[in-house]
Amino acid sequence: MIPAAFEYVRAGSAEEAIGLIGEHGEDAKFLAGGHSLLPLMKLRLAQPTVLVDIGRVTDLSYIRDGGDHIAIGALTRHMDIENSQLLRADVPLLAHAASHVGDPQVRHRGTIGGSLAHADPASDLPATTLALGATYVAQGPNGTRQIAAGDFYQGFLTSSLEPDEMLTEIRVPKMNGAGWSFQKFNRRAQDWAIVGVAAWRRNGDSGVALVNMGSTPVLASSVSTALAGGASIEDAAQQAAAEADPQADLNASIEYRTHLAKVLVKRALTEASN
Amino acid sequence: MSVGSSSIRIDAHAKTTGEAQYPGDRAPAHALAARVVFTDQPHARLLRLDVAKAEQMPGVIAVFTGRDVPVNEYGLTEFDQPVFVSIEHTGRTKVESDISRWEADHLALVVADTDEQATAAAAMIEADWAQLPIVADIDQALAPNASLVHPELKLDSNIYHTYKIRKGSIDAAWADAAVIIETTYELPYQEHAYLQPEAAVSYIDEEGRVTLEVAGQWAHEDQEQIAHALDLPVDQVRVIYPAIGGAFGGREDMSLQIVLGLAALRLAERGEHRPIASRWSREESIVGHHKRHRGRIHAKWGADSNGKLVAVQSEAWLDAGAYNYTTNKVLGNCHLGQAGPYEVPNAQIDSHAVYTNSVPGGAFRGFGGPQAAFAAESQMNKLAEALGIDPVEIRLRNAVHDGSIGITQTVMPAGVTMLQVIERCASESQFHQPLTPAEPFSPFASLPPVEGDLLRGRGFACSFKNVGFSFGFPERCEATIVLHGKPDSPTAERGELFHAGADVGQGAHTAFLQMAAEATGLAFENMTGGFSDTSSSGDSGSASASRLTFMSGNSILGAAEAADKAWRNGDRPAVGHFRYVPPPTEALDPETGAGAPNFSYGYVAQTVELTVDRATGHIVVDRVVSTHDVGRAINPANVIGQIEGAVVQAHGYALSERLQVENGRVLNPRFSTYLIPGIGDVPTRIESVVLELADPNGPWGARGMAEMPFMTYAPAVVAALHDATGVWFDSFPLTPDRVTAVLAQAAAPSSSGR
Lengths: 274, 754
Ligand SMILES: Cc1cc2nc3c(=O)[nH]c(=O)nc-3n(C[C@H](O)[C@H](O)[C@H](O)COP(=O)(O)OP(=O)(O)OC[C@H]3O[C@@H](n4cnc5c(N)ncnc54)[C@H](O)[C@@H]3O)c2cc1C
Hints:
The complex is a heterodimer of chains A (274) and B (754). Chain A has 274 residues and is an alpha+beta fold. Chain A has three domains: 7-53, 2-Layer Sandwich (Uridine Diphospho-n-acetylenolpyruvylglucosamine Reductase, domain 2), CATH 3.30.43.10; 58-173, Uridine Diphospho-n-acetylenolpyruvylglucosamine Reductase, domain 3; 179-273, CO dehydrogenase flavoprotein, C-terminal domain (Enolase-like, domain 1). Chain A contains twelve helices and 14 strands. Chain A has helices at 14-24, 37-42, 78-83, 85-90, 92-98, 104-109, 112-118, 124-131, 149-152, 221-228, 233-237, 254-273; strands spanning 7-10, 28-31, 50-53, 63-65, 69-73, 135-140, 143-148, 153-155, 158-159, 166-173, 179-185, 195-202, 205-211, 218-219. In chain A, the strands form four sheets. A five-stranded antiparallel β-sheet of chain A has the order 4-5-10-6-7. A four-stranded antiparallel β-sheet of chain A has the order 11-12-13-14, sandwiched between helices. In chain A, strands 1-3-2 form a three-stranded parallel β-sheet, covered by helices on one side. In chain A, 52% of the residues are buried. With 754 residues, chain B is an alpha+beta fold. Chain B has two domains: 22-133 and 197-288, Aldehyde Oxidoreductase, domain 3; 295-469 and 590-747, Aldehyde oxidase/xanthine dehydrogenase, molybdopterin binding domain (Aldehyde Oxidoreductase, domain 4, 2-Layer Sandwich), CATH 3.30.365.10. Chain B contains 18 helices and 25 strands. The interface between A and B is medium-sized, with 21 and 27 residues. Bound molecules: flavin-adenine dinucleotide. Residues 29-37, 39, 74, 101-102, 106, 110-111, 113-115, 117-118, 123-125, 161, 166-167, 192 of chain A line the site of flavin-adenine dinucleotide.
């Protein structure tokens, strides 16, 4: 449970961090809150030779009104998202989901950028931003680009970021009064989700995404299609796992995960419709 | 009055500030590091072992294997396990030492300057194995033509120990039964999950003794096992317990004791005198020490129309794993518990210990009792349902009382208070009032308020548990008290207590000093202790079997009397030593089970209220009323600590802890997948109800109490779940996937409703 040896460098800005990563090549990695990376290193599932610490790039820790969206700096901690008045007013689903990440220690250290870049299907914020149709801003040696959440998740712990690209900002559309719900089922309080659901509904529109129901966060578009076609919540929820490809692990079987997805989508849609 | 007051624990300050030293803190900076290498082979014969490359690795001082062990065998009750799996025999072992029967059998010990070096060298050890058929579980062990785990015993199956009870006439009795309930119960493993993983430091002390600083439960027994394997006189081995980070039965057997003792002995022969330290990771701890036995109990109970039991027929199998550890004793306790705390006129009970290539089963809070109580209490609750009799009422009609003949055909030891405890639990928990709505607990643990999916229920269970060693095992406990003061003074100024009893975190040493103060008439502050060192204290027996307060209290009373006599004789200091021996017990008759197996019992009853989310299977326990006759609460705060702690531990057993073992290998040796309850998962409310109905032989009337709150929890939860859903659960833990699956099965049209 002790990581392999590594070098540690601290970056003062995004540019410097990107430069350092470029310099050290393949085996270098950004270190933000360290709450996903360090556990992997302790298990020796990741063995970066250099860690570029971006945890002190404080100018990337912010939550701002961007007009039709809220802009969140990649180094913003979960706790700041949970407590943001701006997010609570305009994107309450995200603020609420952030309050369900791990325990207070985790939320004080973990960052939204790290959570999304890590691309863990069991994490709460990737699915939540996916349901909300967020856009991620990535900065590389040759400038910035925008990536839709729907294009970002490529596979288990794999995103469409280039190794020398850094997430700098997350843009989340304002919810404009949409009903919403975040349903997280865990076997132990304050733990990772066995299955989670982030959902919103406004008039005929909806967004539903699933936590831990495949190798990536899953957009349950069949549920939204069914709802748009006038299906009842009960019937739409039966489509919960249509896009999913859940895996069995030591905590839950495929059957149980599929069952849970249907139960939680139904509950989420019911709550979002009230 | 020291006894009966909640004195602040003498270890509280040091443990709160972090100053307390556990075995892992005892390694001095210059200590050598040792690493135990497991075989990683559930069942295989060693063909070749080559440690030459490992010995050549940087920093390596030595690599020890079976060839270095004078007597390559050990075991708490039977020498059936090699210290190291080894081709080279010393010729003195009973067990074939070249066979690995468990993935965590030890293969070698690497000693190096640093832990990193020892770990690197361990990876260079080469071993060739011939695979043997893995006997994975009870079913495989009992299959015809099953491979034998211990062929040297020359038995015709993997069943190596059976207890019997034959009382009355079972075949005739069924005719008197108005209702018969027959069920097979499956009982899961449980991991002790103590905070402090195994760790030890060894060295040769100033008097030349092989010395171990380690966490255990019975210093003198550790000493004996180390001495046996090292072929040393017992007094050439010294065992010291520093602070112990929990035990729960999981430290009754050897982990690092023998191998680190061996290293100290052999290195000293080579002129190397640095202390040697080792510490297991959590994974090594979970893989490398025994568990609460998994098992199976098939029970058939009959009662007449008034709910009086007429017959109990029961058969149990406990998975001993690869080695006996304390299985034969645990089995005995499980055996006695299968008829519950009831008067049973006709009984036939058979209990078997079964060897497999899985992790050994061994001691764990309740010692086989919880498994038996799950079956017995579930049977009682099902009889109550079938007869339409209230679950409290049916127990009052059947429970043992003073003068009752127990299941072993002898009179129960005096001071039987089962009826009082049942009645008190029912009244304190308002069992006969309508169930009130649950209070929500906390934002992260409450169930979502989904109408129709949340069901509430309430269940009841009761039990008893022996205090002290059973079945004629020589039970004893020693104490020494030294009184200091002026030669001409009629009273002492201060006293010292020397006692080997282990404070595993339960507060035993504080209770010892309270009792010593009370017995000598000194103030608590003026009584100091020298604890848990075989060089300064006599044998105390173990911190187990809910016996330590009972046994130590009586030893302290005797020592105080002796010291007082010496004081009055003018001795300064005045030394009193006493060896307490309780009323004798008997081994059971091999055919009928007749005998007096125990000298004292503690009694428990619990009411559990819960809410279940039937769509997700999630259960929140809203309220537990845990009622105990403790005889006398020596330290009431610590008694409540034991009740709450045991309930939380039993909560994990009943609901969330699922050790997954496949083909002899533990799959989830981590707390991310082996889920012990967190603060958000424990019962919302635990109400401890403490009765003080004296045990006639207990010190100040005290009975043991620390295992009892564990006994009844799982069956009470299952009864509450049945009350909520109408469905019985005959296996657990009640993980949400199991709950939804069983509910779905019960709702299916073809199902019989169970
Ligand atoms: C005990 C525990 C419980 C947890 N429970 C939950 C839970 O319930 N739900 C949940 O969602 N999460 C949970 N987490 C994970 C937590 O939310 C992490 O903080 C988060 O997933 C990763 O954020 P981080 O800042 O710690 O990233 P790090 O661990 O520092 O980095 C993670 C990965 O992302 C990369 N990275 C980090 N920042 C950037 C960036 N700006 N641009 C590009 N790449 C970047 C790193 O190189 C690394 O590969 C838990 C963690 C722990 C330790």
